[in-house]
UniProtKB/TrEMBL annotation:
Protein name per its UniProtKB record: U32 family peptidase
Listed SUPFAM superfamilies: FMN-linked oxidoreductases
Sections of the chain in a coiled coil: none
Pfam families per UniProt: DUF3656, Peptidase_U32
InterPro entries the UniProt entry points to: Pept_U32_collagenase, Peptidase_U32, RNA/ubiquinone_mod_enzymes
Residues covered by the Peptidase U32 collagenase domain: 409-523
Domain of life from the UniProt record: Bacteria
Organism placement in taxonomy: Bacteria, Pseudomonadati, Pseudomonadota, Betaproteobacteria, Burkholderiales
Length: 670
């Protein structure tokens, strides 16, 4: 009847690194479900100043999310990652303190001016907007107090390794899934120049998704109405192991504007991928506790996507662009076979595919433009396993070129949507229990997979069980009832001197008290992420002159760079001091390369990289004209243009205080 309690700490393999799955949340409810579906950390906007302008959240919701996340040891990071005007700094400082008091674990920051303020003792993470492409920039950010940093999406494995080599005290974070911004983050001013909506302030109008006609220096058309700045979506599923080997520890999913179904599905997909990796690699473990199980099979292709690419991680590729359409075509299902006055028929590729009323269907018209429709009523044709009649929600005459009998895709599956609207995951923490004798009664000791422990005692007069076998079964039955908690029973050890008879009510109360104490111990002893202290003397910035590309929009940010050895600091583009033609976007994507027009791709071209020069191209959308210039040595493209007078005039009409290097212009009549 005696047995030794299971000691999981003695058999656990040596862990050398923790791996974090970092999921987005538009709101607290989505964040809670991301935790339930296996996220180790959540990033979410606070009340203001996040790089998704319409994805803010009340402090009470932040508190609700952190309370749930911390039950599993998961973290909550707050996006305070826009550039700030001087007149916004005090509100930003107050918000930082408010989210800290609500339990947030870290602030994600772009604006270096914040480092000059009285911030709470909360960990700082460098936003993707800080444009971390070089070891020098990464080391600098580590040395000024950033504990985690999102390095550029455009880096390859060698570049990631080079950064990891010089940042031993920082966690490297990398986007593994979602929409790709074509520009280096923080290096796009196109939206602001044309509309006054600044990407650096969370309000990008996404001009990169528009169609452009591309012409060469002689006026010849290279591409007509093509979405040449629109990228496919990021998917690093195949590269997770190599990214870990290169030094990535936090795997980030894009999507703070995305809906609940997207976050559930994509989080579950990568949780499964990472769990499989952790099974193979015992030197790694998840950064939070618990195992998530799902009642659906995650499939990233079912969510909005523009097809997928792993971008530059494994080298430059031709097919990174979503040039035909920036929309979501969906999964291929079959072909249109017949068109009638009020419906059409389709033959599905797979007889097991089932259409539903309300499904979203798409096809390409003869000009290769995506046409979408909603299926109001669908019905399988009698005796035809894979032939369907579909009545759309609009007149057939409005469905352009459907009589050409195009391929049919589905971009919304109502059955799938309904599945994800319900409870779709459960996350439980493994727990070990040991029942033993103590003076005057029994003790139930509990410990979990991360080493947290607690116990509860039941004071009662012990009576031997009349039926030994039944007595043991009763003890096990009632102590094993952990349903309704965050725990799952891994092992129960009965270590009493003999089987005792204990009333079921006393066993249930003992179990509840022990588990409640364990959960409280997890909260009381949870890891508080430490704030890294900047090195002294202040680390020098890698450059001594900063242009508008440094995004300095307030006086403390200017002072920060002076403190770190910079001699000349120009104002941010949003300060409207760059009125002529400048680079409005810098990107690793090259239109010439993607269209096989790069001089280096020409037959017989050899030599040192950088000796070849590419002629500019022109982009045109309506009356908007932009110039593409090619910097061939680093293999980068610049989209060049200038700010509209209307944007300047509208900004001058609103009282604002921000960093300038030149006198403020006077408004008409002043």
């Amino acid at each position: 009847m005696h047995s030794t309690p299971f000691n999981f700490t003695s058999v656990a393999p040596a862990v050398t690194a923790e791996i974090e799955l970092l999921a987005p949340a538009k709101n607290a409810d989505i964040g809670i479900e991301a935790v339930n579906h296996g996220a180790d950390a959540i990033y979410i906007g606070g009340p203001a100043f996040g790089a998704r302008a319409s994805a803010g959240n009340d402090i009470r919701d932040i508190e609700r999310l952190t309370r749930h996340a911390h039950r599993y040891g998961a973290k909550v990071f707050i996006t305070l990652n826009t550039i700030l005007r001087d007149d916004e700094l005090e509100d930003a400082r107050k918000m930082a303190w408010a989210v800290h008091e609500a339990g947030a674990d870290a602030l994600i920051v772009q604006d270096m001016g914040l480092l000059m303020l009285d911030l709470p003792p909360i960990q700082l993470h460098a936003s993707t907007q800080t444009d971390i492409r070089t070891p020098e920039k990464a080391k600098f950010l580590q040395d000024v107090g950033f504990s985690q940093m999102v390095i550029a999406r455009e880096l390859d494995l060698r570049q990631i390794r080079d950064i990891a080599a010089v940042t031993p005290n920082a966690t490297l974070e990398f986007f593994i899934h979602g929409a790709l911004c074509v520009a280096y983050s923080g290096q796009c001013y196109l939206s602001h120049a044309h509309t006054g909506r600044s990407a650096n302030r969370g309000d990008c109008s996404q001009p990169c998704r528009l169609p452009y006609t591309v012409t060469d220096a002689k006026g010849g058309i290279v591409a007509h109405d093509s979405h040449v700045l629109s990228m496919k979506d990021n998917n690093q599923t195949a590269n997770l192991d190599t990214l870990v080997d290169a030094g990535i520890r936090s795997f980030k999913i894009e999507g703070r504007y995305k809906d609940m179904g997207y976050v559930k599905n994509i989080t579950a997909h990568y949780r499964r991928q990472l769990d499989e990796m952790l099974e193979r690699r015992p030197e790694l473990r998840a950064s939070s506790a618990g195992k998530a199980t799902f009642n659906f099979v995650p499939d990233p292709d079912r969510n909005f996507n523009r097809e997928s690419t792993d971008y530059f991680v494994t080298g430059r590729k031709m097919d990174i662009g979503a040039f035909d359409t920036p929309k979501h075509a969906g999964l291929f299902v079959g072909h249109v076979t017949k068109v009638a006055a009020d419906h059409f028929e389709a033959e599905l590729d797979d007889a097991d595919t089932v259409l539903n009323n309300g499904d979203g269907l798409t096809y390409l018209d003869l000009q290769k433009e995506l046409v979408g429709l909603q299926a109001n009523v669908v019905a399988r044709l009698p005796g035809q396993a894979n032939r369907w009649r579909i009545e759309p929600n609009q007149p057939m005459s409005e469905l352009k070129d459907i009589r050409s009998k195009p391929q049919l895709h589905r971009n919304r599956d109502m059955q799938w949507d309904r599945l994800l609207e319900r409870k779709s995951a459960e996350r439980l923490i493994g727990v070990w229990m040991t029942l033993s004798d103590v003076a005057g009664g029994l003790r139930l000791a509990v410990s979990d997979e991360r080493g947290f422990a607690a116990h509860a005692d039941a004071l009662l007069e012990l009576q031997p069980a009349r039926d030994v076998e039944r007595g043991v079964a009763m003890l096990r039955e009632h102590l094993s009832k952990v349903g309704g908690t965050i725990f799952s029973l891994t092992e129960l050890t009965i270590a009493t001197s003999q089987p005792w008879f204990v009333p079921a009510s006393r066993l249930n109360a003992l179990r509840r008290e022990a588990l409640e104490r364990l959960e409280q111990a997890r909260i009381d002893q949870r890891e508080i992420l430490p704030r890294a202290m900047p090195v002294e003397p202040p680390a020098p910035f890698p450059e001594d002159t900063l242009s508008y590309l440094a995004n300095v929009y307030n006086q403390p940010a200017h002072d920060f760079y002076l403190k770190h050895g910079v001699k000349v600091v120009e104002a941010a583009y949003e300060s409207h001091e760059e009125l002529g033609e400048v680079s409005l976007m810098i990107t690793k994507h090259c239109v010439r390369w993607s269209m096989s027009l790069c001089p280096k791709q020409a037959k017989g071209v050899t030599g040192v990289q950088g000796t070849v020069r590419a002629e500019p191209l022109v982009l045109q959308n309506g009356s908007e004209k932009l110039t593409l210039r090619f910097d061939c040595k680093p293999c980068e493209m610049h989209v060049v243009g200038k700010i509209k007078k209307q944007v300047i005039n509208e900004a001058m009409a609103v009282p604002m205080t921000f960093f300038r290097t030149r006198p403020a212009p006077q408004r008409a009549g002043h």
